[in-house]
Amino acid sequence: MLFTRDRNFYRTLFHLMIIVVFQNIIAYSINMADNLMLGMYSQSSLSGAATVNQIQFLLQQMTLAIGDTLVIIASQYWGQKKTKPIRTFTGIALATGLILGLTVFILTTLFPREILMLFTKKESYIIQGMDYLSLIRFTYPLFVLSTILMAALRSVETVSIALKISILSLIVDVSINYTLIFGKFGFPEMGTKGAAVGTLVARILELVIVVIYLIFADHKLKLFCKDFLHFTKEAFSRFFKILWPSFLSNTLWALATPIQTGILGRLSADAIAANSVSTTMFQYLKVITIGESSASAVLIGTTIGENRGTTKVKEYSKTLQVIYLIIGSVLGISLFFLRIPLSLYDLTQNAYQMADQILIILSIVMVGMSYQMPTGIGIIKGGGDVKYMMYLNLISTWAIVMPLSFLGAFVWKLPVPMVVLLLNSDQLFKCIPTYLYVKKDKWIKVLV
To answer: Rounded to an integer, what distance in angstroms lies between the CA atom of residue 431 and that of residue 370?
Structure first.
């Protein structure tokens, strides 16, 4: 049976997925709005902020590993309606995240120039980046804490507050950025630093609101009870045993991403422009797949925690995989037809042709990614098996994709669209081992 007849399954899945998708779209729109306004201000401002955002991207992936680990454990406890252990593990996650956020803050405070020089050698970009970093570094611990707290809420199926916070954050960030970057309404023109002020205020607001919600409005977690900071050696050991594979995998993937971007950057200016336009459209649709992954992880983890047996979990996983393929096909077709408005961009004829070809390739990649990513993250990792996807990702990225991409770009001298295909090829070939592994019962692990 491909589709489960359990109506509660569909109600829970689509409720979680729709809200998380919209939250991710809004979060991505904040970054897009920042880039657009800084790009209108000056190229060096945009490039300086983009350089600093490489640090943010690395921190984001590390933080997501902590949040995902918390969701994997806490959702199983939520299936048993036990909130005391969830509070304990949330405390461990917050302590781990705070150490991470403060470490990045201290490093960027002590060695700002040295860190930025790892990403660029251009002095004008470094100067603008240091201006931006002087304020944006204060957002790092705030971002980590609010992300983990929202992961804790997601694990008990409370997701609407995160969407509302994201909407408010978008309004605040865009308003302050417009005012301070360009010096509107009598305020000083601050350029790059103005963008940092907007992000800092938005991050403070996010953390304050989620803490107020947890104290006064949340009736599930009751997080700030006396057992909130009651840690045990066993709890720490269990948390880090699940955390380290995801943390290692996410960190190495985050380090590989700028290297992959750099491969295209060394081919031609048209390649950079074409890839930038194409990737923007691709990323907007990708957030739907990320939403599927998050919703599935909570659903699978809760089902395992309810101790409803492997038969029910496997029934759900089969239905989820069919849903992934349907949504992936729709997204792939949508991306294919998004090639039509490419003529609105101010591109050279060569860059326009490249962008058109890249989008055709990415529309195929989208289908594969829409299956393997939520299957791997939502079902396999959500089911408690964190090591399999770590091995698969490390082998596919560092042993296959990276070598092939280098060879394709610099030895075989392949056309840019073919290099893009090699850079994204893992999204296709990972479908086979992911499908074969999820057919087994090994990924279903009771962690509580």
So the answer is: 10
